[in-house]
Amino acid sequence: MADRAPIADTASQKTGEDVEQENSFQEDMPRRFSRNTYTGALLINILASALPAIYDTLVKIWISKIDSSFVVTTDAYTYINVIVEVLNEGLPRASYLVIGDSAMPLPLRVNLVCTLIAFQTAAGLVMSLVFVASAPKLAAAFVPASVRAASIGYVRISSFSALTSATETAVSLATRAIDRPDVPFMISLCRTLANIILDFIFLSTFRVKTIREPTVNTQASIRMACNGIGCIAGLLYFVYVVRRLRLDEERKSVWMPKWSSLVALAKPGMHTLIESAVRNALYLWLIHGIVDLGSDYATAWGIFNTIRWGLVMVPVNALAATSATFVGHEWGLWRERALTRGSTQASLTDIIGPRKFVSSHKTSGIFRPALLSTLIALVIEVPLCLAFSFWLTRPFASFDFAGDATQVVSSQLAYS
């Protein structure tokens, strides 16, 4: 592996063993609903996206019943993750293009996954330590003054979400790229079940009575512990999946992170990282301005984000992950054909596929998965957005025990 040619030159080196292995997991279910197909991957991705969204909605309700003034504090966790998102949209986003190249030998793709996970974990740990050290400044930027002093502990605990988020994103996106969406589903399932069980015991209306009443820091500690459980479960399941593969390389060579693999991911990943850094810097600047307006506006923005990311964006995230996976596959297959025939010119059929809109078992055409996801998203999202804009936002805000002023602001945000 150490002497292998650059990634771009190995596109046509897929062996019969690789083909046999990539098809070996489809025998237990009909092909249409296999995780190797668009339909099957989409169903699994919807479940993986819905579970954490349900929890994020429930936790605001539970915190509001403990102390409604601290609902806005829980949004600090979200804003920390916005910073971490810059890291998560760098190399992990490149996994769909690089690792998702199904024409690449399977051992090389697995090594790219291992390299990505190792890099993201190390970078996430560094970011967590920086966040812990700068917790007062983070609280000053993203928590209203009325609860800022009491929120520093919450920010310190939530700082370790950088480590768990970076690791989870690396595992999730990389394994989706090798047609294993069941790995991120396992992460979401384990994390969400642990969160709901522990929150039900310690935070909910039916919680166990203890000497000390639960606080917002209790919720942060539970969340961090459960995030860790999800990451460990995902890593263990990934190890189990790889050990089942009949790889024709030495196990140590496959598992060991390599500089060449990191460079292969970094080249396309730098573009998405720079774009994410600019976009999220503008978003955090907007958040800082909203927080300065006071607790009502900060709480309303948190409710709006809960609606957006906890409900509206669940199908969008699932569709985006699925389309990115299969666009990467189609790109790799087209590149293999292009290298074989010595031409880099893509035809219209190469881009959008044959006239038959939906294939029986798989997508075809580089752009076809993205087009299909876009059409599905429009059918779902337009009615959903209209419903929340005109009717559902204020009733939803009332579940968070928000005041009338906060409910009005939330409605205006949703309408706009």
TrEMBL record:
Transmembrane segments: 37-55, 110-132, 183-202, 222-242, 370-392
Residues forming coiled coils: none
Membrane topology: Multi-pass membrane protein
An annotated GO cellular component: plasma membrane
Keywords for this protein: Cell membrane, Membrane, Transmembrane, Transmembrane helix, Transport
Region (Disordered): 1-27
Chief location of this protein within or outside the cell: membrane
Subcellular location: Cell membrane
Record PANTHER family: MULTIDRUG RESISTANCE PROTEIN NORM-RELATED (PTHR43549:SF2), MULTIDRUG RESISTANCE PROTEIN YPNP-RELATED (PTHR43549)
Protein name according to UniProt: Uncharacterized protein
